[in-house]
Structures are given as C-alpha cells and as structure tokens.
Amino acid sequence: MAVTARPARWHRNLSAKIAAIPMIATALVVFVGGTAWTVVYSFTNSKLLPREKFVGLDQYERLWGSAKWLISIQNLAIYGAFSLVFALVVGFLLAALLDQKIRFEDTFRTIFLYPFALSFIVTGLAWQWILNPDFGIQAVVRGMGFESFTFDPLYNPDIVIYGVLIAGLWHETGLIMCLMLAGLRGIDEDIWKAARVDGIPMWKTYLYIVIPMMRGIFVTAVVLIASGIIKVYDLIVAQTGGGPGISSEVPAKYVYDAMFLSQNLGQGFAASTMMLLSVIIVVVPWAYLEFGGKARRV
Amino acid sequence: MSDTVTMKGKPLTYSAAETDPAVPRHAGSAVAVGPSGSKPQKKLSRRNIVLYGVLILAALYYLLPLYVMVITSVKGMPEIRLGNIFSPPVEVTFAPWVKAWSEACTGLNCDGLSRGFLNSVQILVPSVILSIIIASVNGYALANWKFKGGEVFFTILIVGAFIPYQVMIYPIVILLREVGLYGSLTGLIIVHTIFGMPILTLLFRNYFASMPEELFKAARVDGAGFWQIYFRIMLPMSLPIFVVAIILQVTGIWNDFLFGVIFTKPDLYPMTVQLNNIVNSTQGVIEYNVNMAATILTGLVPLCVYFVSGKLFVRGIAAGAVKG
C-alpha cells in the first residue's frame, strides 16, 4: 500500500524506528538485560557490592533456610489465596447487586471504587489506626461493655496477615467490581429474558449461564489480582512494618531489606529470582491458554 | 448455553417494560420521559430492602476509614485519648492539619509534609509528561508504521510488565549510579517513565490502531511524514486517550512508594515516603490527629483526580486492566 519499495531497507520507516528507540532500549536493557543480570548475580556471594564470585546455589540454600523468607512465603500464600477468593466473590456480588437497575448506581460505584485511587501507604495507615487496639475497634467494643473483647490483628503474630488482608481487600475489591460490572453489562439482555421465561431462578442463571459467559473477565481479574499480590510491599511497610517481629514479612520486603538495609545483595537477588520464578509459573500457563492455541492478537 | 439462546425473543413483549434499560430516574426530573415509571408500589418490596440494605452496609464499610480519618484529624489529642474513634468531634480544630503540613518532623527536617508535596509535584509533572510523550509516539509508530521487529520489542515490553519490579531494581540502581543520576529526581523520573511504558504504549497502540486507516492513508498520499501525521492528525483526534493516560499516570506516580524510597535521598523523598516516615516514626509522642491529617493530605491529590474524572478514571483502569 502506501509504503512503496524503497532503495535501502534499513532506513525504511526510519522515523518510526527512531521513535521506538526508548521502547527498544527499555525492553532490551531494563527488562531483558536487568532481569538476566539479577538472575546471574543471584549465583554470586555479593554482599555490599555486586561481585563476580560464583558460589552456585549457596544463596538459594541460605534463602530457603531463613525463617524470615519462609514466613514471607507463607504470608504471601495466605494473603494471596484469601485475597483472590474474597476479591472475586465480593467483587462479583457487588457488581451483581449494582446490576439490578438500582437507583444511585453511580454513587454506590463511586464509593466502592474510591479506595483504589488511594495509595497503599494511605490505605495501610488508615487501617492501622482503625485496628489500633487502644483506640480502634477493640477499644470501642470494650467501651460498650464487652470487656474481654479482643480484636488486635496487627499486634498478634498469628493473625497479623489477616489484618493486612482487610486493608488489601478494601483497596482492591472496587476495581474487581468495576471489571465484573462491565462484564455483566456485556451480557445480552435476551439471555436474561429467556432464563426468566424458563423460570430459572436468578441465582442459577448467574451461576450456570452468566458466570461461564464471563470467563474472560474472570481470567483478567485473576491475573490482575495475582500480579498485585506478588507486589505487595507498601501496604505491609505502612501497616505493620513487617511486625510484630517478622510475622508479617512478605517476599517483596525481604528483597528490599536484603538489598538496601542489610547489605546482602546476593540474598536479595536470589529472593527476587524466586519471585520471578513464581510469576513465570503463574503467567506462562495463562499466556499459553489465552494466546497459545488461537491466532495471536494482543 | 446454546439451548437458552435458541429461545431468545419468544415472548419479548411480556417483560419489556421491566427490563427496559432503566433511564436514571432521579427525583424531581419528572419531565416527559415517557411512561417509564412503572409499578411504583413495588419500591418497598422485600427484595429492594435486602438489595439496598446490603449495598448500604457495603458502602458504610468502604466509607468508614475515610470518615474515621477525617474526624480523627480534626480532634484534639485529649479528646482522642478519652473518646471513641467513631464519634464525631466535640470540638473541631484544624491545628493538626497545620502541623502535618508545615511542622511535622521526619528525621532532621521539621518542615512537615509540604516538603514531600513539593518533591512529589516535581517528580509528578515531568514524569507524566515524559512518559506520555514517549509512549504515545511509540504506540503511534507501532500501530501505523509497522516496522520489522516492532512487534517483538512490544511483546517483550508487555511481558516485562509482569516481571516483579524487585528483579530489575538493582541493575537500574547501577545504571543510574554510572551516569550520576542515582538519588536525584531526574533518576526517579526516568524510572517512572520506564515502568509506565508498557501499559501506556499498549493503551496508545490500541487506540491508534482503532482509528480509521483511510485517514492515515490519505495523509500519506498527500505527502505527510511521520511527525506531521502525528502532530496534525493523530494528536488532535486522540485527546480522550491522553486524558485517560494522564489520569492513570498521575494517580500511579503520586501513589508510588517503592521507587521513591529506593531512587531518591531523604531530602527528596516524595510525599508517600515522607508520610510513612512521619507516621511510623518511633520517636516522640504519637499524635494520631496529625498523622491522620497527614494521611488525608497525601491522599488528596489522587482523590481529587478520581472524583473529578469520574467515568474516565474507570475507563483508564479498565483499559489498563482488561488488556494488561
């Protein structure tokens, strides 16, 4: 079409190629180069500065022998599993409720989504205050006469991660609700009519007809939540600082602490490589399912 | 699924009235919209009570933290110590806000959050502009000037968006240190531009690709070049997507904590980092009202963006989410 044969190939679309230099540099230097660099240096015994003294899998052995890392992984698993289930269920329920042709739909949606605009730092600090045992919910309920009422998730190592979960869900369910609502709006009205004529109860219509039709949206939501889970860092820093003790540590914080606080670069590299590995385990099968079989269109 | 589809449209007229896409019928706007206000007696049915009850309860849960933050920030410390965090203030004071803005201490600096605010603005404005310029030109080149290898690099970019930041942080620290930008605002701006690139490029590429191709072809026939088409045809036609991109970047960059804490020095910390340092500092008496005022102040910018932009915000995150 418009691009007729030009004499030399390399300067065809030259402007476009020049315009794409930042993208190419980012893709190659930062994303490919940076990742490869970190993976390679995770096999060294770098401490304060990166050095090329390779020690095999030493860093990984030390990593998996460290209590802090094991707790981090455990917390991430708990946080991740609950966050995924609750965000999907609550997000879908809220969307389904909003989809009942109600009044003030915009108002409700605005209220459900606003936490998503706030940073994790703000979210964490707000919930830190509400969950504060001396002033927050616990104190208020005790003030009402229930003297033995205990609700101090942020000060109890056994349940601290659930305290973080409350804040995390507050932040993200609005987004999932929005996605789900868009999905519900995409369902043909005729399907509802047909189901109603057949006398299928509403919950059955949702469960067996609407939700299977929204498979794409659910997959997107899962990918979105999952990629958010692995990044959880600010929320922990603001809400608990990893405490009490090390009971609410997460991998992203482990990496930061190792690299920038305890001058233990090798550990940081090994831990971040493990994070990368977990992402690969999640993303590759998904990408294969989504784009593998069909003609690829991003 | 297929058996339900075959039945569609059988008795359409039967339920048409109640399934009509409800025009938002706000009180007072009883202008002739046709007879859409059907069955008003059903307004207080059991179903509606449950429906609105659940929604209102959920709304209260979502509003609770904001409410608590606001009322805590206007109470005096004695009142906070004695009272209930959910009860409205007896005496409203704005002293905590003043203190949070101009006196609260982090480390050696005691000039409050105003410093962090200024730093955040200085980070935000160039980062947003730079990242959007680069990403829009990129997306335009990818969508309209397909060149060899373009898709490959784009795929790397999108896949890269899934890599945890932690994996790439240290190499960037080294690169920035090499060029003397580590610890400076410029360095942080570059980092924001880099990590904003995947999602923004995707956004612009898809938008430009959805524009009618004839437009581009006609301009080419008329002899317009790469930049001419970009500035005179594409740019004026893509204002909405620029607004979406700006919303996305302003909230994203303002809310960033990780990059701020890694790539700047204490003097240059953005507002989120400074806020965290103020609130979670272990020295001195904890002033909860000042902390809450500081927290609200930090959340104010994205909240304003959110409430002003409304539907566009939703569109921005949907665009980012659905395809990202």
Write a structural description.
The complex is a heterodimer of chains A (298) and B (324). Chain A has helices at 14-19, 21-41, 58-64, 67-98, 105-117, 120-130, 137-143, 160-185, 189-197, 202-213, 215-231, 234-239, 251-261, 265-292. By secondary structure, chain A is mainly α. Chain A has one domain: MetI-like fold, CATH 1.10.3720. Chain A starts with 13 loop residues before the first helix and ends in a 6-residue tail after the last helix. The relative contact order of chain A is 0.13. Chain B is mainly α. Chain B has helices spanning 2-6, 12-19, 46-73, 77-82, 95-102, 113-144, 150-160, 165-178, 185-209, 213-221, 226-237, 239-255, 258-263, 271-279, 288-309, 311-323. Chain B is globular, with a radius of gyration of 26 Å. The chains are: A mainly alpha (298), B mainly alpha (324). At the A-B interface, helix 1, helix 2, helix 4, helix 5 and helix 6 of A face helix 2, helix 3, helix 6, helix 7 and helix 8 of B. Chain A: Its main location: membrane. Chain A: It comes from Roseibium litorale.
Report the structural category of chain A: mainly alpha
CATH class of chain A: Mainly Alpha
Q: Work out the strand percent of chain A.
A: under 5%
CATH class of the largest domain in chain B, named Mainly Alpha
Q: Could you state the order of secondary-structure elements of chain A as H and E?
A: HHHHHHHHHHHHHH
How much helicity do the residues of chain A have? Answer: 55-70%
Our count of domains of chain B comes out at: 2
Q: Could you tell me the mean pLDDT of chain B?
A: 82
Number of strand elements of chain B = 0
Structural domain tally of chain A? 1
